[in-house]
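DM from R.C. (forwarded with permission)

"hey, sorry to bug you on a friday — could you get me a structure for this? deadline for the figure draft is monday and I only need the backbone to look sensible"
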Amino acid sequence: MSEAVEPAPHAPEGTTIEIESKEHPPTPRHRRTLYALIEWLVIIALALGVSFLLRSYVVQTFYIPSGSMEPTLLIGDRIVVNKLAVDWGTIHRGDILVFKAPPSEHCGEPVTDLVKRVIGLPGDHLTSRGNTIYVNGSPLNETWSHYEPLGQAIGNVTVPANHYFMMGDNHPYSCDSRVWGTVPRSDIIGKAFLRIWPLSRFGFL
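My reply, with the result:
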């Protein structure tokens, strides 16, 4: 014969039966792990935000793909450009600038940005005779390293307002303002001030 099973007692009407939950509140260890994860996510988000702002408005790194700035900058060098030096500072003759490639630039493979040295400032008159560059009638004293001969001559150029005449230090092998004209200030990205690679050539420019 089967054993009789006594039915479970019914709770009186209006009585609440408390059922034990299988879910347990997070332990202090779990909470610490969660807080640490949130902290790291916030730190990463802040770091990415700061990096974006720095790259957009303060500094940016660039790779040198050609020999037009030899011997100052070699192929493969990596440089840091200060954007605030252009936005809030003054551009001087002899500065090395990174700027957007002019639409008329057609010296080889299409490029987005170029790096050259400032030779002529707004209002300057430039010309050349032999290997000598003349600025406002006086020979330019190139105190920086560069290669001669001059190569393509400079005709008679008067630099427009808010424009700059740019040349590569490797004079005979540089495609620059002698070919595609002056560069408007609005196209200048920043001043190159530091070489960070290779480490053997690390230093200020």
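R.C.: lifesaver. Residues 1-8, 15-21 have pLDDT under 50 and may be disordered.
me: no worries. The two ends are 102 Å apart (CA to CA).
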